[in-house]
Amino acid sequence: MKMHYQYYLTGQLIAFNTHKLNAFSKKFNAFPTVIFNKGNAYNPTTGHFTAPVDGISYFTAQICSNSGYILFFYLEKGSETMRVKVRLTATHQFEYNFNSCTPASCSVKLNIN
């Protein structure tokens, strides 16, 4: 009797880490300084992440500010042009006396591209 076992592990590691300093403006959506971009799914020019495979993705962001600033920021899922979008998180932060940081994170099902 012959026995044959095969085990296939398929998958792709996709990860990115970016930042932007002195980004206080009325609106910005891209973090141009890329620390790493494994899989090249993040576009630092547009700030868009394009899913290379179907699956569940986890995103986290941390925004820091000096005292006296009010921050609102969002993580959004949308079409390539962002004309159609869904707000996944809504975060508000205000600290009058101290510098502070505020995190946001979410899991979201994405389809390829």
Task: Describe what you observe in this structure.
By secondary structure, this protein is mainly β. The protein has one domain (15-110): Sandwich (Jelly Rolls), CATH 2.60.120.40. The protein has no helices and eight strands. It has strands at 15-19, 33-38, 42-43, 48-49, 55-65, 70-78, 85-94, 100-110. The strands form four sheets. The chain has a two-stranded antiparallel ribbon with strand order 1-2. Strands 3-4 form a two-stranded antiparallel sheet. It has a two-stranded antiparallel ribbon with strand order 5-8. Residues 1-9 have low confidence and may be disordered.
Write the layout of secondary structure elements.
Elements: E1 15-19, E2 33-38, E3 42-43, E4 48-49, E5 55-65, E6 70-78, E7 85-94, E8 100-110
Antiparallel strand pairs: 1-2, 3-4, 5-8, 6-7
Brief synopsis:
This protein is mostly beta strands.
Our Rg estimate from Cα atoms comes to 18 Å
Largest sheet: 2 strands, antiparallel
Q: Which quaternary structure do these chains form? A: single chain
Look up the CATH topology. Answer: Jelly Rolls
The CATH architecture designation is Sandwich
Would you count the extended β strands for me? 8
Q: How far from one another are the termini? A: 46 Å
- What class, by secondary structure content? mainly beta
CATH class: Mainly Beta
Overall structural domain count:
1
Helix content: under 10%
Order of strands in the sheet with most strands: 1-2
InterPro entries: C1q_dom, Tumour_necrosis_fac-like_dom
Domain C1q: 5-113
Pfam families: C1q (PF00386)
Protein name: C1q domain-containing protein
